[in-house]
Amino acid sequence: MPDLVRAPGTRIVRRGIERGPVREFLVFSLASELYGVELARIREILSPPPVTPVPRSPPEVVGVCSVRGLLVTVVDLRRKLRVEERPLGRRARILLALAQSGETIGLLVDEVKQVMRLGDGEIEPSANALGGDLSEHVLGIGRPQGMFLILLDLSAIVSS
Amino acid sequence: MADLTDKAREEFFSEASDIIENFSRNLLALEGAGRDGEPDPALVNEAFRAVHTLKGLAGLFGAARLGTLSHRLEDLLDALRLGRRDLTSEVLDVLFSAVDVFTVVLDAERTGKNEPLPSLDALYAELERLGTGQAPDAGGGLDYELDAGMLAVLTEYEEHRLHANIQQNMRLYRLRVQFDLASIDKSLDEIKDRARQHGEIITYLPTGSAATADRIELDILLASKSDLATLIGALGSDNVVVEEIPRRQRSPEPPTPAEATTGAAAPPQEESGSPLAVAGERAIADRERSLKSLTQTVRVDIRRLDHLMNIVGELNIVRSSLSRLSDRVRSEGQRALAAELTRLHRAFDRRLSEMQEGILEVRMVPLGQVFERLARVARQISRELDKEIRLVITGAETEIDKLIVEELSDPLMHMIRNAIDHGIEPKEQRAAVGKPEAGTIALNAYQKGSHVMIEVEDDGRGIDETSLVNKALKLGLIEASEVEQLTREETLGLVFLPGLSTRETASDVSGRGVGMDIVKTNIAKIGGVIDVHSEVGIGTKMTITLPITLAIVSALMVQVSTHVFAVPLATVSEALNFDREMVRTVDGREVITLRGSTLPICRLERLFELERTESAPTRGFVVVVALGARRLGLVVDHLFGQEDIVIKPLGKSLSRVRGFAGATELGDQRVGLVLDTAALIEEVLSSSDGVRERLGVMHA
Predict the structure, then answer these.
(1) Is residue B598 included in any domain, yes or no?
(2) What is the mean pLDDT of chain A?
């Protein structure tokens, strides 16, 4: 509930003035890197159910699964972002996100870590340094508490 | 609150669209009937009422432009029904264009955009040009011994119809009828229907006197050609007294209608109750009737039905768990309990199928919805091309899944266009070969098993196979060496190849012949196939075969390697044992012999590049799928039997993946893919280079 924490008079608001509007990011890992997506865009976090592969689908699509009757296309974020693929562990999760088209997309990640609040001032806007395939999917880089967070643009990821 | 308003607005829009469709239907009927002389006054009046209702609705929802447009048309239609102007084809044209403008205006109201609408302005200009029409005709003398009380309460329209009938030397009759109050609706409709076969009902009014309190007496004023004896024979009964209203002896100065009306206005108020009150009652009765008809139907967003269908799918899973549970209880020796569980399971199963059928039924809509739109298009095109077309529609009541109907309208429109543009010859040519000048296009729909067939048939010039082949050669779509081997069916099938038009020049209407291949693709998308038959000089018939519903299908569950697939049963003609030794190779393609004929086969594992953990079994099954004349054998490892499945479409991100109609839940939290057999047949049979395969025609 980001709106609640920004209610007038709270401490967060005063801190918010220094670092700009605050957004919450869900932090997860792919291989050894940490990534973040805006929490408000994630509807649900699931332990991976059985996923049925779909022949002839694009390589990053793992397949389809059913979430309480809803058909979800599962995309392997590691393949999508060309990150090293390790065998899925116990901590692997699927993040459900709603695409612009109205379709629910599942994003497969190695591990979900925590939720972080980042002010706009704390996000390095340019991702030029990253180059290549990644840059079109990246909002910016966050460095809270000495971490290195690649903040992903969820709209760009689920729509391509 | 916002939701409520939105919902109300949504209903307003669908109500308005319905009225506009009704209006369009009236116009078509008017045009059809009007060709043979006088337009049917009842139809004109109905069109007037439609626009009138629309005006009221628009006012209610503050749809200003819709309101103004309705108002302007109401004026025109009022002049028509009051006989102030004739229904010329020019007027009909304007009215028909109004149907399209209505749709545009409605869209604009829906999106709330207030940008100028050129078509609306054009229509206003047309209406302006038509003017208001002449003054009402005086109507001649009313030399009938009409009850003054009745005359006083006639509406302007009824009065006009009375005059019009008198001018045509119709006789006037009064039917005095008595009904039970309890059954008045039915009885009145019944007598009205019967009376209408003999003439026109000008009006009907309660007389205010009846034998008992639970009965009601009405006077029906009927104008008819028939004589009294005929009418008494046809309509008379204990409750219906037919009297002819005699002509007045010609008095030196017959009273003008105005005199008759105003002169009579005062006395009846004392004589026979209050005519004003009577008129008021009728208005209320009308309103109640229209309210009633509104409440008997409910419009539902198709997504809600999908949602219900999903729930049914979930319940199916519960059902199979129940079945497993009763098996387990039985195996643990608790027989009585198991029997009870089995009974429960059966009852649940039965109710669930009923529910499934019920929901499916709700999704079904008559094809008439699309056909009416097509009739309008056909009319427009025939005008543009100066060809006279008679569109004959049968089977408009045939029902099909709402989603299929939506997807059908474009392909059918294309086919009608082609038929009028390429099929029907110009008038002179038709006359020269002794055909009637008006070309006939038949649009037939009927159900055949679990399929719906739609035919578009014209009596035009037919497809010239030689010129079709030549063009295909010129475009390099076939090789000269292939031509000889083509059967007639295959030759005609060439029209579905991209880029082939049967005419040398492109036209505004159907363009350069990019149509038919797109038609074929679109039909295939909704699980249908299209076939063509044609005789030179006699005509062309295109037949579309469609599944009745998309939502729930019976499917054969099969397994290939570790993958489970569902094959829609409607497309399965049989399944047989498969042995590697049965396979022969013809033209680099694997085939087997089935009862003396050749059947091409497709190994799903190769087609889908499925990985195998172990080598393929030597034995398996062939599932023979067929659509129209095309057959294909799908080679699978195992058959699991038949199941009713709910097909869920794959998401947009997988829309480019061919070969799957969707996915379905298998009951153990897993998902199985549903094969799109139509697409597979198309793909496999057209994959090699020969034109035979490209056309997808394989002869058994």
Answers:
(1) yes
(2) 81
C-alpha distance from B18 to closest chain A C-alpha (Å): 28
CATH of the domain at B556: 2.40.50.180
- CB contacts < 8 A, A to B, total 78
Q: Which of B259, B277, B295 is the last residue of a domain?
A: B295
- Say which amino acid occupies A26: L
Give CA–CA dist A36/A28, Å, rounded.
6
Judge: A54–B673 Cβ closer than 8 Å, yes or no.
Answer: yes
Beta partners for B399? B366
For residue A58, the domain's CATH number is: 2.40.50.180
pLDDT of residue B476: 78
Q: Please, are residues B305 and B401 in contact by the beta-carbon 8 Å criterion? A: no
Same-domain status, B333 and B237:
no
CB-closest option in B311, B653, B672 to A73: B653
- Burial code (b: 16+ CB inside 10 Å, e: under 16) for B466-477 equals eebbebbeeeeb
Q: Do B601 and B635 meet the contact criterion of CB atoms below 8 Å apart?
A: yes
Query: How near does any CA of chain B get to the CA of A101, in Å?
Result: 7
Summarised one tens digit per residue, pLDDT across range B582-602 is: 899 887 789 998 887 889 999
Beta bridge partners, B488, equal none
Phi, psi of B109 (to 5 degrees): -65, -40
Q: Give the pLDDT confidence of B629-644 residue by residue, as tens digits.
A: 678 999 999 998 888 7
Structural domain that includes position A23? 2-159
pLDDT tens-place string over residues B495-552? 887 776 555 454 544 444 446 877 887 887 777 778 889 998 899 999 998 877 666 6
